[in-house]
Design brief:
The protein is about 5% helix and about 55% strand. By secondary structure, the chain is mainly β. It folds into 3 domains: about 80 residues, Immunoglobulin-like; about 120 residues, TonB-dependent receptor, plug domain (Ferric Hydroxamate Uptake Protein, Chain A, domain 1); about 525 residues, TonB-dependent receptor, beta-barrel domain (Maltoporin, Chain A, Beta Barrel), CATH 2.40.170.20. The strands form 10 sheets. The protein has a 22-stranded antiparallel β-barrel. It has a 5-stranded mixed sheet with strand order 10-16-17-14-15. The radius of gyration is 30 Å and the shape is globular. It holds the Pfam family CarbopepD_reg_2. Belongs to the TonB-dependent receptor family. One of its GO terms (cellular component) is cell outer membrane. Keywords: Cell outer membrane, Ion transport, Iron, Iron transport, Membrane, Receptor, Signal, TonB box, Transmembrane, Transmembrane beta strand, Transport.
Length: about 800
């Protein structure tokens, strides 16, 4: 406000009076501007990118309640000079993106650098770029680990994300095929068993090992390789994640982010052929379903069929995934997604290649040919998996949001199988026969509120929610019978399968229902821009009951009741805007899969505790994300056989195991180069001696060293513009195949891959070659020294895609 001077004169000339006022106004304005200019000043430079790490040109950058404003250039850069020292609120916005606010402190004589990432608004949704070298490998944000859309840089947990572009560049069609892009993770065999931080993640015992959009309910059974037809990205959350997801593998969980309907019309068609009569067709269609673009759709259809270098491993998949999104407003939306997967196989899963035991107790991994299998041509497998997920989001205000999700999954399996019994003698093996029909289900309801608020100098991102999960099986009809002994080199399958009159040695006919109720609260507290603390607590209550359905089930029904608190504490410090260091403490507990009183149950729950410290850094203008993590995981109350004279079925809970190690990873794009690199050291050992193993023994399928590198060069100019050249290498050190036999060690191996693609207009042609040196290697074991999972020999895939958008 300007106070005008009133002159004490008797007669005031109006014109003269006006001149005096104008003169005084100009004088005061000039003095104020001069004073403003003399205040200590600083500067601000920054870069604005999208969720896909694309620069955002033309974005508005404004200092709130000032006249300072600018727009970003073609590379997303902006700058301000001579900013008076003080505290400001910076607002960045652009059409199609959610505006963001950033508190700033401008200091005299100092240059401040700021890099921000804008996410697509609900009207635009999140769509990944699909052409040229704009396809990036790095994804900077994930809301799965904390259920908050915050940068990985400020997340106090080791999280790695494989983008859709990586999946395409590798021509990976299953989780098994893309798992080698994750640091410290590997597929143990040809089904749903994986090793993460030295722990085996396997669906039967880890109900939430595989998540879909952060929700429990695995679409695929343990005997299947999860398909990637409808997957936008794959996230690996390392370590126990019980604070949000209840039980899971102590080594980590895998989250599938599915493809969602888009506002922009887009149609993609893919055809691929490859070794062993591999054929694959897929279509991905999306766009508005209504003229007002409030109703959006996506339809994904896939079909593949293949044989194998192994005998009797034919496989056929049909996959259908329609989804709808209705945008009530910019604040409210509803999404329905349905997945259907049908699989028909000659063998439900590969039991592995024979391994010869030498007279001195050592093993010959190269004695038997690759193609031989213990399974019979009379075996078969058929699965039908279906899921439906309904997601509702409502933004009450800029600070309060509600998310409610219901997911229903049903899987039916019908298969027969031959498995090894005992040891190989004189190149022959005894076998048993399994006949199994089961129907499994999962009903998951989740609702949570996200709220942002300030208390003094503290900024809070609070998540509070409740989960209800009802899962199990309504049918579990299983029979285990003796089968004929066969010669390995000259097998006679004429008596397969065993006659119906052969008495089953083991028989199950039951149902099992588990009810889980969980409540949790989480608060990410920001103290300024450099310090963030994550505090969360979850309470879970389980009740499970297994009920015989007929006299054929010779086991007493199990019943389980378990409950407990699961804490999580994390601290992040950002010494610079692109670097963070963190420390975290994570816990989880898993109810036992068996609590039969005849075996000595009920038993205490399996508990995992992890301590982790790490570093994360984004470099080369935030194009490359790097991370280093050091961890220790203690896993207690593993069940082991402890028979007595009175009770041959008795079990006991053990002290458990300890896994510790270090991991390094780098992912991103530098100019025309895409890169994924990683190294993991892990030491996973048993802590006590029992029938499970001896103290200090190595855990099975847990190599101490895993290293991987994938490098792609994209030609952006010249006559061969649109060409991509890639090469990759993966090293896995030796690993114990069975805990009870520490001499059963799979040799280390190194595998080389390569790829070549050419993109022109709407077409992309791609050739991938895997295991270029035709290395013979074993990936892991199931439960015996008779067989082991064998890696694929030299093979290729040729794919053609056509994109309309």
């Amino acid at each position: 406000m300007i106070a005008y001077l009133q002159l004490p004169i008797r007669y005031q000339n109006p014109l003269k009076h006006m001149k005096i006022k104008v003169f005084l106004f100009i004088f005061l304005l000039f003095s104020t501007c001069k004073l403003y200019a003399q205040l200590p000043a600083g500067s601000l430079h920054g870069n604005i990118i999208s969720f896909e790490n694309e620069p955002i040109p033309g974005a508005n950058v404004v200092f709130q309640n000032t006249k300072l404003k600018t727009i970003t250039d073609a590379n997303g850069n902006f700058s301000f000079k001579n900013i008076p020292a003080g505290t400001y609120v910076l607002i960045v916005s652009n059409v199609g993106y959610t505006a963001t606010r950033q508190n700033l402190v401008i200091e005299s004589g100092k240059k401040l650098k700021l890099n921000l990432q804008l996410s697509k608004s609900k009207q635009e949704l999140n769509e990944v770029a699909v052409s040229g070298i704009k396809n990036r490998y790095k994804i900077s944000n994930s809301n799965t680990s904390t259920r908050m859309d915050i940068p990985l840089l400020t997340t106090p947990q080791s999280v790695q994300i494989v983008s859709n572009q990586v999946i395409k560049d590798r021509q990976a069609f299953t989780l098994n095929e893309i798992s080698n892009s994750f640091t410290g993770m590997k597929a143990n065999n040809g089904n749903g068993s994986f090793s993460i931080r030295g722990f085996t993640a396997y669906s039967p015992t880890d109900a939430s090992f595989l998540l879909y959009n952060g929700i429990r309910g695995n679409l695929f059974l343990w005997s299947q390789q999860p398909l990637l037809y409808n997957i936008e990205s794959v996230e690996l959350l390392r370590g126990p994640s019980g604070a949000l997801f209840s039980e899971g593998s102590p080594g980590g969980v895998v989250n599938f982010v599915t493809k969602k309907p888009q506002v922009k019309e887009r149609y993609e068609f893919d055809v691929a052929i490859g070794s062993w009569d591999f054929k694959r067709l897929s279509a991905d269609l999306t766009g508005p379903f209504s003229k007002n673009k409030k109703l959006l759709y996506r339809a994904i259809i896939g079909y593949d069929k293949s044989k194998s270098f192994r005998d009797y491993q034919d496989k056929e998949n049909i996959f259908i995934a329609p989804s709808l999104t209705y945008l009530f407003s910019a604040r409210t939306d509803l999404n329905l997604e349905i997945n259907y997967a049908h699989q028909k196989t000659n063998q439900q899963y590969d039991n592995g290649t024979y391994i010869r035991t030498n007279p001195d107790g050592t093993f010959d991994f190269n004695y038997y040919p690759d193609n031989l299998t213990i399974q019979s041509p009379t075996d078969y497998g058929k699965t039908d998996n279906i899921s439906a997920t309904l997601t509702f989001n409502h933004q009450f205000s800029d600070k309060l949001k509600l998310t409610a999700i219901h997911r229903a999954v049903n899987s039916k399996l019908d298969y027969t199988d031959h498995i090894p019994v005992g040891k190989i003698r004189n190149d022959s093996i005894s076998r048993s026969y399994q006949d199994w029909e089961t129907s499994r289900f999962s009903l998951q309801t989740t609702a949570y509120l996200a709220y942002q608020t300030n208390t003094g100098l503290l900024n809070h991102h609070i998540i509070t929610g409740v989960d209800y999960n009802r899962y199990g099986w309504t049918k579990n009809d299983y029979q285990y019978k003796p089968a004929t002994r066969i010669s390995i080199f000259n097998p006679d399958y004429s008596l397969d399968p065993p006659a119906g009159s052969v008495k089953a040695q083991e028989s199950d006919d039951n149902k099992r229902i588990t009810n889980l109720i969980g409540v949790y609260v989480q608060d990410q507290v920001s103290i300024g821009e450099k310090i963030k603390a994550l505090l969360s607590m979850r309470y879970d209550s389980y009740h499970a009951k297994e009920t015989p359905l007929s006299a054929r089930d010779n086991k007493q029904g199990d019943e389980l009741q378990a409950s407990g608190l699961i804490p999580r504490i994390g601290l992040v410090y950002l010494p610079a805007t692109n670097i963070s260091v963190y420390a975290s403490f994570l816990k989880s507990f898993n109810p036992q899969t068996s609590n039969n009183v005849l075996s000595g149950g009920p038993f205490p729950t399996r508990r995992a505790t992890q301590y982790e410290i790490g570093y994360k850094g984004d470099f080369f203008n935030n194009a490359i994300a790097t991370s280093v993590a050091l961890y220790q995981i203690n896993y207690a109350n593993i069940l082991a056989s402890a028979p007595t004279e009175e009770n041959s079925h008795r079990q006991e809970a053990l002290k458990g195991t300890r896994s510790n190690g270090i991991e390094f990873s780098a992912t991103g794009t530098i100019q025309n180069f895409n890169i994924i690199a990683g190294y993991a050291y892990n030491n996973h050992v048993i802590l006590s001696t029992s029938t499970f193993g001896k103290k200090g023994d190595r855990f099975s399928n847990a190599p101490k060293h895993i290293a991987n590198l994938w490098l792609k060069y994209n030609v952006a100019k010249g006559a061969v513009k649109g060409t991509g050249i890639a090469a990759g290498v993966r090293y896995v050190s030796d690993q114990v195949g069975q805990i009870t036999n520490q001499n059963f060690i799979f040799p280390s191996y190194t595998v080389f891959d390569a790829a070549l693609n050419y993109r022109r207009g709407k077409y992309n042609i791609q050739l991938n070659a895997y295991n270029l040196t035709d290395k013979r290697y074993f990936t892991g074991s199931r439960s015996s020294t008779v067989t082991g999972g064998l890696g694929d020999p030299l093979n290729y895939r040729l794919g053609i895609s056509y994109l309309i958008q």
